[in-house]
Here is the input.
Amino acid sequence: MRELAARKELNASRASAHQRCWVSAGATGELAFGYHARVKPAVQARLLPAAVQEASRSTTLDLAQATRPLEVLPPNERGTAVLLVHQAYRFALDPAPRQRRALSSATGGSRFAYNWGLALVKQRLDARAAGQDVQVPWTLPALRREWNQAKEQEAPWWRENSKEAYSSGLDGLARALGNFSASRAGTRKGRRVGFPRFKRKHRARESCRFTTGPIRVEPDRHHVTLPKLGTVRTHESTRKLARRLEQGTARILSATISRTADRWFVSFTVEVQRRQGRPLRAASTVGVDVGVRHLAVLSTGEQIANPRPLERLQRTRRRLQRRWSRQDRARRAAGRRRPGRRQRVTRRRLARLEARAANIRRDALHKLTTRLVRTHGTIVVEHLNVSGMVRNRRLARVISDAGFGEIRQLLTYKSTWGGARLVVAEPFFPSSKTCSACGHVRAKLSLAARTFQCERCGLVVDRDLNAARNLAALVVVVAGSGPETGINACVRDCQPTGDGGRSDNPDARREAAGSQQPVRV
Here is the structure.
């Protein structure tokens, strides 16, 4: 009876035109078994109705019907809300030799369709420039129509792979063309995007996405089934996803195969119903200052060690790079076009080494961000100009190895899932130059100075700890505010001077007064 009443309320709400509210995490990534996989779509989250939440505790919920907008809960009831999110589960595969060739064929077919479509677009553009009246396929439907008409002549072997392999390549081309057009029109944020280029074998990322066909996780939790590829064994257990599928709280939307460092992976994009968390200390506010010496310094005084994975493996990496360079010079001197067996082995070892460094870095960032979201109710971070900071050739490698930008991206969607609030300070907020005791702002502070000394009150404190305290002091919590209603916060000053996101106006008197400029939440 409880399930029937919940379904009646859900159907009635779908007929109503009243839209109350939406919550979007706004992140550019997904959680994949504790690892972060970059994706372009934003992770969207919305709360389900209270009746559906109650029914989901004891019965199976059909995710296709759970499309109601967000219900804003009182502060004392947060933590019991149910979110509908898009989440990725990534598993390493253990394919047989025949299946490895089939996986390579699928990704190769995707690359072939991409290059074929790009050549067609360039040919049509040249014809139009010559005065001919031709149609240029610029969207995915147009590219698919052209491919279906020409695939028997251009690729008579197309039946060896799933149709989704070629559609995946054409979809990537359509997205690239769309980004190019939006960048030229000025409607796309970020750097200017150039015209798409051809993909080369062994250079471009090998990947292919499946959206239709048999896509499932087998009940034995050690095999997955993919279109045209059949059943493939996984290197690790799929129980985390299998449990949600068995409970009816997840629905697979697509599957993407990829190869990294000669190892194959499959990533399932899943629509998941998950309960919103609640921090252990909901009233706690913590400032997080990221750095190179320490991965992060919290306003509580805690220092998070920086694993520096690439620096630790740099000696072996240099040795392998020198070996590969010698082998490549010998190949060129002998007039051989393709690398030999030993050179391929060296390249494989180098790729595995860099993949290991990336895994260590990703693991440390996920552990840090998850602990922050589960512990503190409000988290304050800086929006650093990382692209400008890496222009310093002396610090570019260590800054990239620390993953400054990744921390903010992970906190963006984890704070929504965990019921915490994320406050992002403006890029040029002078967190390191401001005294956390009296608010005095120094005119200059070199990177070599690891201790902050206030010229007004005489405070002597660690530079990073001082910055973390200033970030925590930004937040002025409003009574009854939460992750849905937002907060009011201000910074002292945000005058840019181009010093990596931590500079300020040299006018000390103006800085000490401070300006009430809002912080993005």
About this structure: Residues 282-306+359-518 form a domain with the Nucleotidyltransferase; domain 5 fold (CATH 3.30.420). The longest strand covers residues 263-275. Confidence is low (pLDDT under 50) at residues 10-46, 52-79, 477-521.
